[in-house]
Specification:
five-stranded antiparallel β-sheet, BirA Bifunctional Protein, domain 2, 29% strand, SH3 type barrels, single chain, seven-stranded mixed β-sheet
Amino acid sequence: MPVMFFPEKIDAGTLSARQKEVGSKLRVFCIEETGSTNSDVAKMLASSECTTDFALIANAQISGRGRIPGRRWVSTPGNILLSCGFRPQELAPARLANFTLWFGIAVAEMLREKFGVPASIKWPNDIFCSGKKMAGMLTEAHLDSQRVRGIIFGIGLNVNLDGKNLPEEIRARATSLRAERDGNALDINRVCAELLFALENAYEKFLAGTHTKTLREKWNAFDCLAGKNVTAIFAEEKLSGNACGIDEQGRILIKDTAGTLHAFSAGDVSLSTKL
């Protein structure tokens, strides 16, 4: 079988062709390097530089940040660094509660169906595969008391990541599409096009509100914490117990040793070695 060679970076022309092949219509801006794609998209939304929904993709990011202050997303060659800018017309701030969860489901579902990897979700914003992190997501919003004026959804997805390029301290905790597919390189432009298409469809269903009918059921199919012993930390509160999925508001449910069910809407959750 001949060896396939693919571009190492996102190329605007190639990506556009791949978008047409999969049906993606989202407008895309491609840049070589930036501090943070989320920060760039925030500026674009504020300046009305682009009046429609769009995505910004960078081949390198030097100041990527995570959901929790102080954490960062390590940028390495061959991966997708992407942020979408959405402009909902009429959307109440309260409806954003499940946004990241729903988009996480869309990403994990796409990875399973299109690339055959056992992707799952670690509440609330990480994509895992074989017990290791493959992607991180971050949602930010521009809003006033009445409505959401802009939504920024950022994702860093490891595609052709070579573990040798990672810092030693996270090498054992990170994986990529390539690693999960026996080390075979993928066409990063095709992966990006499939990702964009999945996000477009997820956003359409989110705006229509139809996602609420299937969110908990779909979450259960992708939840990598369900039934496992976890520790949740939120502000000064720390709780260990058994993860029991999510409630209607997207809060993670944890049952303590006394059988009491607790709901967390934010915080950090990790697997526990014991209760």
